[in-house]
Specification:
Layout (H helix, E strand, L loop, with lengths): L38 E5 L2 E5 L2 H9 L1 H4 L7 H4 L2
Antiparallel strand pairs: 1-2
The protein binds zinc ion.
The site of zinc ion (ZN) has 8 residues, from loops.
Length: 79
């Protein structure tokens, strides 16, 4: 017995400019500590905290250098 329940498809239509909030605690570029008050830049739909705009620019210019494929910050993985 199949009850024809209407499936609501969750269409993730996120508005332009909407990025996932930053969670990193280290600047991906210079590895400095960052916090909620730090500036953020958006790379591939994910926001990242950076210490200043120069690091932000470097991150946006060459994200693969500083980020893993899943978007996590390489600098935070190193012991
Ligand atoms: Zn920095």
């Amino acid at each position: 017995m199949l009850h024809a329940a209407l499936l609501t498809f969750a269409v993730l239509a996120s508005p332009a400019g909407q990025a996932k909030p930053a969670t990193n605690v280290k600047d991906p570029v210079c590895k400095m500590d960052v916090n909620a008050k730090s500036a953020t830049v958006v790379v591939r739909g994910q926001a990242y905290r950076v210490c200043n705009k120069h690091c932000g620019e470097a991150l946006q210019k060459d994200p693969d250098k500083f980020l893993e494929k899943d978007g996590s910050v390489k600098a935070e993985k190193k012991k």
